[in-house]
Amino acid sequence: xxxxxxxxxxxHHPCVLPGEPLQPGLNxxxxxxxxxxxxxxxxxxxxxxxxxxxxLAIPPGLILDQTSMHPFARLRLPNQSPxxxxxxxxxxxxxxxxxxxxxxxxxxxxxxxxxARLDEPQADLAREICDPGLLLSVKLMIEVESFVxxxxxHDPRSLKTAQTHYRHVFRIGQALNSGWQAPVxxxxxxxxxxxxxxxxxxxxxxxxxxxxWWNRLRRR
Length: 220
Ligand SMILES: [Zn+2]
Description:
Radius of gyration: 17 Å
Bound molecules: zinc ion
Shape: globular
CATH superfamily: Glycoside hydrolase/deacetylase
Structural class: alpha/beta
CATH class: Alpha Beta
CATH architecture: Alpha-Beta Barrel
């Protein structure tokens, strides 16, 4: 389904990375969260196949230098595990992330340091918002200008901190954006696509536009 979806996007939509000039028509910015190993193994080859690029949001505090675990075992690890090493082994390693960065096909966003929720009063915003962008830029030798809220959750305090440190701040929101200048950029979820074109079908786009209007009205 992802292969067919990418083929549909490549044929019908300009695909851009954050901050790039927009072209006529509906521009799409692909984003993937967390940096699971399957991004390196499955998604990245499909991006190459369709000449697409994507934004990958990483919680760098969870990333390992290397792992000796077998690739199939890494793919089978549960997303939620009480064992931090299991969580980290299921994510791309620094070596793999460097490979993605060197391809020129993947831009990176900070996604918290440890993927903690940032809408809670005890959240350590310096560690979870300011530091991960710095760590990613040092480890991958790139500029990190985007921040994606873990779980899509923020409160006014964490939103302000993210906006101070990053040019582009993303949440979920299930809505369209009218440009890069919005204080918080919305994303639509591509989970469980029914058909390759369903995500951007006209009826769906009308819903995303209405949702953008509703989100702005209630300042979300
Ligand atoms: Zn996440």
